[in-house]
């Protein structure tokens, strides 16, 4: 069968989809991976066949112009799931902002994605959880579609809670910005909004049950398989570390999209000089350029593959991104999450803390001393390593991507249908 993967133009989202795309292709299926033109070279480097669907050159400029959104916009935080702490008005504002942001990502690629789907006729569309163009393209050609997570599923749980809150609001006062936007775009093609636009006909969840969110959406588990882009293992990484090794990785999105990191890298690295440990700072060239003189125990590296580095580490300090978090999870490495409150990052960091597999430190409290204290706590208590190992065992026990292929083949048999038709 023909399988179309699609993602917004974010490398980290693409990398989470890549192992399943490999598995579908290895099983004999035709695979295409579609995103905006600026991502096609990165897609091609994964070994997959890329399809350019529109351009989104303005997204970085827009995000940099709204850098404060990660720190100051309560509506950008999706971490609170306690119904007693939520209101209809507050969740409506959150969904309004999310629909606006999602449209900025999806609208530039939507028409071209539908056009390609109509010409190529996929049987299945697998979409990143923020790529709402995916289910619309699937409906336009009658393809089955599945949503593959690269977050904890706060998006669907929040939507479920919002709909419950809306039930207590007068019908004439209810609003649903996500349904309004996607419904209007589907109507242009002869379709009608359903909740499957938000949940997929199936949700593929890589998180172990101890950390996942049990929504009402139909779900199937899948093991997270690390992929960090084309990689070469450096010579220094071939030998076992001579002392405790710590990795600090702050990801790419804050630098590339928001104009810089939200913590002081140099000050934190200086504070860690007091440890009897090797600190490997895995940074982008732009991040490295911001550093001054560093302590002797700090090794700054660029483009090192986390999946090769982390097995030798006793701790990962990171910014809350899903790729860093999930890489450490499957290698049983305790984590110190130093993050802004955007998206689900506090939720995932708190989940590790509750499981005693790591600690959470909001970025505005991340002084060098606070980071040092928490690093010392994790390294000084063997239970963190033990509990991280327990979560690793739970994570890698989930079905490999190859084992999920038959589940998706069955979904196609069950849900392939006639395409939408305009009047």
CATH architecture descriptor of the largest domain: 3-Layer(aba) Sandwich
CATH H-level homologous superfamily name of the largest domain:
Glycogen Phosphorylase B
Query: What about the largest sheet?
Result: 7 strands, parallel
Number of domains: 2
DSSP E strands, number: 13
Strands, helices and their partners?
Layout (H helix, E strand, L loop, with lengths): L1 E5 L4 H16 L3 E6 L4 H6 L4 E3 L6 H7 L3 H4 L15 H33 L3 E4 L5 H9 L2 E5 L5 H13 L10 H12 L7 H4 L3 E3 L13 E3 L23 E5 L3 H6 L6 H7 L6 E5 L2 H4 L9 E4 L4 H4 L5 E4 L3 H9 L4 E5 L5 H10 L3 E5 L5 H13 L1 H15 L4 H15 L8
Parallel strand pairs: 1-2, 1-4, 2-3, 4-5, 5-6, 6-7, 8-9, 8-11, 9-10, 11-12, 12-13
Helix pairs in contact: 1-18, 5-6, 5-7, 11-16
Walk me through what this model shows.
The longest helix has 33 residues, at 88-120. The protein is α/β, with parallel strands linked by helices. Helix 11 (265-271) crosses helix 16. It has 2 domains: 2-223 and 398-415, Glycogen Phosphorylase B (Rossmann fold), CATH 3.40.50.2000; 235-396, Glycogen Phosphorylase B (Rossmann fold). The protein has 18 helices and 13 strands. The chain is globular. A 7-stranded parallel sheet has the order 3-2-1-4-5-6-7, with helices on both faces. Strands 10-9-8-11-12-13 form a 6-stranded parallel sheet, sandwiched between helices.
